[in-house]
Design goal:
By secondary structure, the protein is an alpha+beta fold. It has helices spanning 8-76, 86-103, 117-124, 126-143, 168-182, 212-227, and strands at 106-114, 149-154, 157-165, 186-188, 192-194, 198-205, 238-240. The protein has a five-stranded antiparallel beta sheet, sandwiched between helices. Strand 4 and strand 5 (192-194) form a beta hairpin. Helix 3 crosses helix 4 (126-143). It is elongated. It starts with 7 loop residues before the first helix and ends with a strand.
Amino acid sequence: MCYVIPEEKDESAMKITFTNRPNGQAGALQKALKDARAQTACEHRKVVELARINNALFDEMREQELLFRQLQEMAYHDELTGLPNRHLLQDRYRSAVAYAERRGNQIAVLFIDINRFKSFNDEFGHAAGDRLLRVLSERLVGALRSIDTVCRYGGDEFVVLSPEVDGLESAITIAQKINMALTQPCKFGEEASATISVSIGISLYPIDGTTLSQLLLKADDLMYASKQGLATPTASRRTEH
């Protein structure tokens, strides 16, 4: 009987082939891991970049919103006093008219002028005049109801839109409160102080007109009549200190 013994080199070749196959798989796995890490790093960079872009867009939107609010504030409010201007007064008047038509109430428009304001500016200076206007604005707001609108109409003139009044007597009561608030002494520094007087004309919706321009014209006429001492008993919708 004859036995054939395999050559040692063949067994070694088989072992080499066998052991090299796992090493090849490990290399492939390492390459896959390396590629995965590279892809993950790339995706991470993309996420970081997207987050940066998103934050930049958010900041830009916030700045635009802030700018819009500032422009809106400038469009509807007086720069010096912060009070509503003519545009916002017109909007408030439309709302007041709609409410008055539903409830059957009247609306009072009070036109206010500071007497001898030019003389005050000449004596104390324009900076003091600006401070006086701001003080008077605060007093006006503090003397009136939350539903009333105080508007700086221009220069030393103010307009008060007072909805939900019962008639002339109610409007006169409002004018008296305004007069009392505005004619209190105003201090400028430790020594300087000034006492002012005001003229106020009153018109009523719908008795004196149905548009804001009509009511303003009527109240303005009565205010100047009061200022010049020309008011008659029939033009009694005014008060003057």
